């Protein structure tokens, strides 16, 4: 274990929307250090979302992200020779990072022409409360609910 906690690094806000959450999303979207391409994909996706829905793209993206962020998750813990899935609350910082990762993962798994198309369609679906990323959140919550009998094992 570390002697001291690692220093928190602060991100620069993105150039277009001046939002650090966008930068965080783009950093996770980025592959092989190609940040400018990741920004282009994100901005194109937001533009497509605006075109298809008529709403503000960034607000819809934030709504989608909130719909995907889990409140509880299960952590495996070994007690007396048996493994138990113990439901735990998710820290706010982790909530955001897990939500971002799920949104990107299920965008990549979608069928579509470009990544911007796939991301845009996943954002619209998640904002409506449907789509694979929202299903993943619901499955996680369902699993935590099913295992709440073991919540007294929490460390």
Keywords:
single chain; 155 residues; mainly alpha; Ribosomal Protein S7; 10% strand
Concise synopsis of the structure shown:
It contains 6 helices and 2 strands; from the N terminus they run H-H-H-E-E-H-H-H.
Could you explain the architecture of this structure?
The chain has 155 residues and is mainly alpha-helical. It has a domain of 101 residues: Ribosomal protein S7/S5 (Ribosomal Protein S7). The protein is 57% helix and 10% strand. It contains six helices and two strands. A two-stranded antiparallel sheet has the order 1-2. Strand 1 and strand 2 form a beta hairpin. The longest helix has 19 residues. The two termini are 17 Å apart. The model has no long low-confidence stretch (mean pLDDT 92).
Describe the secondary-structure layout.
Layout: H1 20-29, H2 35-53, H3 57-68, E1 72-79, E2 82-89, H4 92-109, H5 115-128, H6 132-146
Helix pairs in contact: 1-2, 1-4, 2-3, 2-5, 3-4, 3-5, 4-5
CATH architecture designation of the domain at 20-70 and 91-140:
Orthogonal Bundle
Continuous helix count: 6
- Helical content stands at 55-70%
Taking all residues together, what is the mean pLDDT?
A: 92
Q: CATH topology of the domain at 20-70 and 91-140, what is it called?
A: Ribosomal Protein S7
What is the N-to-C succession of helices and strands?
HHHEEHHH
Uncertain spans, ≥5 residues at pLDDT below 50?
A: none
Radius of gyration: 18 Å
How far apart the termini lie comes to 17 Å
Q: How much β-strand is present in the residues?
A: 5-15%
Going by CATH, the homologous superfamily of the domain at 20-70 and 91-140 would be Ribosomal protein S7/S5
Number of strands: 2
| Major sheet summary line | 2 strands, antiparallel
**Structure class:** mainly alpha
Strand order of the largest sheet: 1-2
CATH class of the domain at 20-70 and 91-140: Mainly Alpha
Dominant shape: globular
């Amino acid at each position: 274990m570390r002697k001291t906690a690692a220093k928190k690094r602060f991100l620069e806000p993105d150039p277009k929307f001046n939002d650090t959450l966008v930068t965080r999303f783009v950093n996770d979207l980025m592959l092989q250090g190609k940040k400018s391409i990741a920004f282009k994909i994100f901005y194109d996706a937001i533009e497509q979302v605006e075109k298809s829905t008529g709403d503000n793209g960034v607000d819809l993206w934030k709504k989608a992200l909130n719909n995907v962020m889990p409140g509880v998750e299960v952590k495996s813990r070994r007690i007396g020779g048996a493994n138990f899935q113990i439901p735990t609350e998710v820290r706010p910082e982790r909530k955001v990072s897990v939500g971002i990762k799920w949104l990107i993962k299920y965008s990549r798994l979608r069928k579509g022409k470009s990544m911007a198309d796939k991301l845009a369609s996943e954002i619209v679906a998640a904002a409506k409360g449907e789509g694979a990323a929202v299903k993943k959140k619901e499955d996680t919550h369902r699993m935590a609910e099913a295992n709440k009998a073991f919540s007294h094992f929490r460390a």
